[in-house]
Specification:
56% of the residues lie in helices and 2% in strands. The chain is mostly helical. α5 (79-86) packs parallel to α7. The radius of gyration is 18 Å and the shape is globular. The relative contact order is 0.11.
Length: 165
């Protein structure tokens, strides 16, 4: 699912330069509340995956409240938090750096919803593949991913060593 929203705010020139999203595009987009209703229906009870998910989850919850959409939201699964635990040796865990280091590819322009969602999905699949051998007795599920996300980064090596023993 991808949609621009008309949030009735001006689009700063640096955002247009960064994303390619113009004021005209936003002005023609549907209102935020309308889009949030469609998004909430699209998500349903599924888990949501995002890179730096705390930002997206705060935004999502706030906009659902403003649109009076009653929806119980499971904590989003964060590929940034997972990557910090699975690839602690990397200096940066930005989406762009993970894409580069792991040999993933962008399908479209970075910082646009569809392209970022595609590459985040590819990253999530890669993280799942890299976690699978470490959790051999357990299916890589949203429950397991949330558990890994809650594991302090400093305790992750010992946790992985224990699991691999």
């Amino acid at each position: 699912f991808e949609s621009l929203v008309n949030c009735e705010a001006r689009v700063p020139s640096h955002i247009t330069a960064f994303t390619g999203i113009t004021q005209g595009m936003v002005d023609e987009a549907p209102p935020v509340a309308d889009v949030m209703r469609v998004v909430a229906g699209f998500i349903g009870e599924a888990s949501v995956v995002a890179h730096n998910a705390s930002f997206d989850q705060r935004f999502f919850i706030r906009e659902c409240r403003l649109a009076r959409i009653g929806m119980l939201v499971q904590p989003f699964i964060c590929t940034l938090r997972l990557a910090r635990r699975v690839y602690p040796e990397l200096r940066s865990h930005s989406l762009a750096e993970l894409v580069r280091v792991l040999g993933l590819t962008w399908q479209g322009a970075a910082h646009r919803a569809a392209a970022d969602a595609d590459v985040t999905a590819a990253l999530m699949l890669r993280l799942s593949q890299d976690l699978e051998p470490l959790y051999a007795d357990e299916l890589v599920s949203d429950r397991l991913l949330r558990r890994v996300m809650r594991t302090p980064v400093g305790k992750m090596p010992a946790r992985l060593e224990k699991l691999c023993a």
